[in-house]
Amino acid sequence: LLSHDLQGNARARGDQLFGLLAPLAKLDAVGELRGRGLMIALEMVRPGGDVPAPEAAAAVLEGTRRRGLLVGRGGLGGNVLRIAPPLSVTADEAGRAGAILVEAVEEVDAALR
After folding, report:
1. Cβ atoms within 10 Å, residue 29
2. Residue 55, C-beta contacts closer than 8 angstroms, at least 6 positions apart
3. So what's the pLDDT on residue 49?
4. How many CB atoms lie within 10 A of CB 53?
5. Interhelix angle for 91-112 vs 54-66, to 10°?
6. How far apart are CA 3 and CA 58, in angstroms?
7. CB contact at 8 A, 97 and 20
8. Which tens digits make up the pLDDT trace of 10-23?
9. Are 11 and 92 contacting, i.e. CB atoms less than 8 angstroms apart?
10. Which of 17, 20, 44 is nearest to 30 (CA)?
11. How far is CA 63 from CA 1, 84, 90, in A?
């Protein structure tokens, strides 16, 4: 943990992922992007409101899976995507994961409009 500065890596990769995902917060189907370090949550809602959209979260999960990325889902409404990569994730891996997630969320957002 210390010799590989995994805490520093988590902070840097978390900032990287948050930066890649930040534009998603402007989409109609995204209620909130939140997190700290490598623990990031993306709340999916029905466009134009704050009603949980578990079907949108499920569609994003399927979209990321098809592209080779596994993310979790939770929240009381089943509408929150949870991203928690290992502390040892590399910059390239974080970049690829972020790009996949952005693509999948944008695809679902467009389909809901």
Report:
1. 26
2. none
3. 84
4. 24
5. 130
6. 39
7. no
8. 999 999 999 999 99
9. no
10. 44
11. 33, 18, 22
Strand 39-44 to 30-36 pairing: antiparallel
Which tokens sit at 59? 């569609």
C-alpha triplet 58, 65, 12: angle, nearest 5°:
100
- Strands lying side by side in the sheet with 80-83: 30-36, 39-44, 80-83, 72-74
Tokens of 69: 């990325």
Nearest-CA neighbor of 35 among 70, 63, 72? Answer: 72
Phi, psi at 70, each rounded to 5°? -105, 125
Tokens 């992922």 belong to 17
Q: Is residue 57 predicted with pLDDT exceeding 80? A: yes
Q: How confident is the model at residue 4 (pLDDT cuts 50, 70, 90)?
A: confident
Average pLDDT over residues 30-41: 95
